[in-house]
Amino acid sequence: MTARTLALLAVIASLLVPPAAFAQAAKKEEMPEGWWRDKNAFEVWEEEHKWVRLGMRFYGFNPAIDEHAALKLGPGLAVPVTTDFFMGIGMKIAFLGSYNTAGSNDVVDCVDRGGIGSDPACPSGHRGGVDYTWREPIPNGSDPDATPSPSNFVEERRRTHVAFFALTIGGNYELTIPNLQFFRVFQPFVGGGVMLAWVQTYSDLDTTEFVLIDNEQNNAFDDDNVDPYADQGPEVGGEVYGGFHLNVHDIFRFTFELGYHRVVVGEAELNKATPEFEAQHLEYTLSQLRFGGGFEFRF
Description:
mainly beta; two-stranded antiparallel ribbon; 14 strands
């Protein structure tokens, strides 16, 4: 490679990369350890500022007991993208998802919290599941020739699986005092915002509801058949959260969080249910306390 080529490459590099970037990089390399102790918080923040954080968080989701729903603790995760516009003030956009169940195919499953319910099968809590309603089958729901009552409806709680997905957006604040050693490592944060949520409510019907799945959209004799379900969204809800970061490196940190969100899931007809019985789940509120942690990269 000739000297003329090297000179040309140097000129191109100087045009593509601003000189200030080289100066800043060199300055950081020359900075002695503990340089930040003699500066104020804003000066240190300005020197170390990174605009974006991308992470992943893993949670346990604990739904509150509702009049028409009782669900158990379930797993979930979030992929948040947060920003720092000025001294820790920014915003967060995140994908959030959870999966909660109540009951199984062969036992009555109780949710032992939220006070004492009225179901004698669960004397210290509530029967797990979601409440459903449908036209009363005549003579009964096990009879494939049953017909729907013209006036009477059945209301029963049945085992249920609830899948929740949401896109959240809101404000985020990280306590930013980078000229103090303790707060360089331990960094509390709080935030909140709105969410657009999609909720799938999967019923788990008994043999006494045979007529609800006795149609060409289901195989009533297949144990792996997906029972009638409701697919709803976007529903509007809200969230608040707080926690702290452990900054173990200038680009990597661990995160621990406690949060809460609330979405009202309106009553909805069940897909795949035999239409003439008008099966639907009743309205319930998905109020979930979440707790967990994860990691983030700062750019």
